[in-house]
Amino acid sequence: MTDTQFDVLAIGNAIVDILVYTDDRFLNTHGLIKGTMGLVDLDASCALYDKVGAALERSGGSAANTIAGVASLGGRGAFIGKVCDDQLGRVFSHDMRAIGVYFETAPTIEGAATATSIVLVTPDAERTMQTYLGACVELSPDDVSAEEISAAQVTYLEGYLWDPPAAKQAFIKAAELAHNAGREISLSLSDPFCVDRHRADFAELVDRYVDILFANEEEIMSLYQVESFDEALAAVRGRCKIAALTRNAEGCVIVSGNELCTVVAETVDEVVDTTGAGDAFAAGFLAGYTRGCDLPTSARMANIAAGEAISHLGARPEACLADMVVERMGRNLR
Amino acid sequence: MTDTQFDVLAIGNAIVDILVYTDDRFLNTHGLIKGTMGLVDLDASCALYDKVGAALERSGGSAANTIAGVASLGGRGAFIGKVCDDQLGRVFSHDMRAIGVYFETAPTIEGAATATSIVLVTPDAERTMQTYLGACVELSPDDVSAEEISAAQVTYLEGYLWDPPAAKQAFIKAAELAHNAGREISLSLSDPFCVDRHRADFAELVDRYVDILFANEEEIMSLYQVESFDEALAAVRGRCKIAALTRNAEGCVIVSGNELCTVVAETVDEVVDTTGAGDAFAAGFLAGYTRGCDLPTSARMANIAAGEAISHLGARPEACLADMVVERMGRNLR
């Protein structure tokens, strides 16, 4: 493989999170299913916002969180995603560039505002999201350049990108460009309901393009419509180079050819908010993988990053993940 | 005193905080004086923002934080302050109303954006602020109504309001309306540099209008240009009904007529960020005072609120202060 400018280039929805504590009763009253991400239009988003408590704003977006994690692990990251040139768009852009991530996607100048996701955190630390895609629907194949994609060892795509229609084409274009350049493609299935919405497409994507697949237990079972994790494991085996499957507190299972590696989750003092756990897991794994680490090492890094993400409110790392890896694994990533 | 609709009405700059961790070197490189609030124009604010790390956005503003604390203590609060009808203005407005604070000041429709303050938090938990006043400069006497002021037992004014020129007039109007209605006026001196900018005006305000004065050691010494806290205490005595003076970890001293009451600070497990400590202190004191608590009780509530504020990033309460008061003082505020 020739030298690359980026370890990971992530493509995803560019979202600012509106984080708010709530309770189960509120979720029930508003017909929200705990742990899932639902899409809402502007009116529904505003109506929900009017009903929630005082909030905290913080850049989010699934693949964007992943690239923030890669950067915190000392990886060289790039991001493609669409914001509007408004206050929250400038917040999102700042937070990408401030951590050293290359982010040059042109913002929209008018039309829908920058995407926001109302993230409802319940006392059990679960998060339930209601996302208004806003400017994200304007992401198009024109935003994906061959130069950027071929400069990245791995291009990482979030499944949520399948929701805004034009982004799908950007997604496919990126996958083809990456493979043409001899690079790899990684996909996160994002959310069980997202898998429900796009099951046939996702199954085809995995077979055609995906080198490294990320999914949690529920998502991979939903993708292959099977009843147990073992059946899902059997179903995904051989379909992509690596499948990295997470099982919450039980840790993760990595499948690659005939190799199967199980790594237990890290101990976390207090689980505060699970927002971004899967995003951070992918960050840790990809940061290890792109540095040539073996599967168990990459998986351990993934678990460390996920453990950090769930120990505070919000999805992006608060601690320096590279320092955490040094501390826990005695491995210098600098 | 006749019945009131509000315990406290606060008038202040309506600001969204951009909270970011940094270090002493960054402050020195940019000529920033630790622990102070500096005013910057839009260009300087943007230039600084470009240089800081990934941030977190959260509603702030000194008097606005105080009224959020009053609400968290079960008090009935109102706020007057100026935002623009933009994304951050809507964030600020939402966060006021979501905690039950009456906030009906008309936003501006065009012109300067909603005010932001870049809050730089150093490892010693000190905060240094650079504030762009934005739409706050549009606050005018027209935004202050006799009906609202006379509906509040105490009208609380932040010293920072003396910075935007038109807000001064709103400040004076509010003070006169309150006294005409037989209500009380409270003032926070806000910041030693703010006292430097407006020393003569503040001294006159205290003598003419202020019933309850809040200041920290440095501010009250600056106001009366004396070299010791004891001299400042002697200087302020008799000039207002109550002077509530804070001394960081040493707690507070309350002066009222011949009464002098000293209350030690609450124990805090870990001081994370001192942003909003003074605002929270005023909240606790006013919540107690307006409920008819004696000075030592009100001061203890003030210290509990301040202790909560410094235990996390950001100025507004994260825990329910009323519950904390019940727990620590066995006092039911509901």
Spell out the key features of this protein:
21% strand; 13 helices; 14 strands; 334 residues; nine-stranded mixed β-sheet; alpha/beta; homodimer; 38% helix; UDP-N-acetylmuramoyl-L-alanine:D-glutamate ligase; five-stranded mixed β-sheet
Could you please describe the fold and organization of this structure?
Two copies of one chain form a homodimer. Chain A has 334 residues and is α/β, with parallel strands linked by helices. Chain A has a single domain (6-11, 62-102, 136-329), classed as Ribokinase (UDP-N-acetylmuramoyl-L-alanine:D-glutamate ligase), CATH 3.40.1190.20. Chain A has 13 helices and 14 strands. The longest helix of chain A has 16 residues, at 165-180. Chain A is globular. The first copy, chain A, starts with 5 loop residues before the first strand and ends in a 5-residue tail after the last helix. The interface between A and B is medium-sized, with 23 and 23 residues.
Calculate the mean pLDDT score of chain A and round it: 95
Strand order of the largest sheet of chain A: 6-5-1-9-10-11-12-13-14
Shape of chain A: globular
Sketch the major β-sheet of chain A: 9 strands, mixed
Low-confidence parts of chain A, pLDDT < 50 over ≥5 residues? none
Portion in strands of chain A: 15-25%
Oligomer: homodimer
Assign the CATH class of chain A. Answer: Alpha Beta
Briefly note the structural class of the backbone of chain A.
alpha/beta
Classify the fold: give the CATH topology of chain A: UDP-N-acetylmuramoyl-L-alanine:D-glutamate ligase
Rg of chain A, please?
18 Å
Instruction: Say which CATH homologous superfamily of chain A is assigned.
Output: Ribokinase
**What percentage of residues of chain A falls in helices of 4 or more residues?**
25-40%
Helix count of chain A equals 13
Number of individual domains of chain A:
1
